[in-house]
Amino acid sequence: MVLIVTPLSRLPAVIVERSPSHLITLLSPEELIETPDGLPPERHLRIGVNDIEDPAPGMIAPDARLVERVFEFARAWTDETPMVVHCWAGISRSTATAFAIACARNPHADELAIALAMRRASASALPNRRIVALADQILGRAGRMVDAVEAMGGADLVLEGSPFELPARH
Question: What total of structural domains would you count in the chain?
């Protein structure tokens, strides 16, 4: 099945249209949303994190525990129905998280192939480099995930991405 990446503004429509079994929210702590109606709370991972790559005063930077929580949550997903991953704009935190999940679920797949599948699906995907680097380290990918995201090249500059799908199996 698929991982669906979307901005927050399109989340209600994506949920109605795709009926996901699992949802990951990555928003600033003060912007975290409640679990949408019809989705069991245990199938909604809510993470308060800012979209930054380097620690900054008053902000929450992605850390190893965040990535470990994502991997733990994703292990419970059977991938028979979609999982939705969203952040504010659907460009950075959510794309990095979807990429990390796809890499974790496919330990022998080529990281570049996964990254290029993401690029084909979204011209605006610009995965958060800190999340990718942490996932790379946890998965023991020896920098290949970081290199793959760099090889995606620049992204279209938009205020908000469009929903897109990334295959869960590669």
Answer: 1
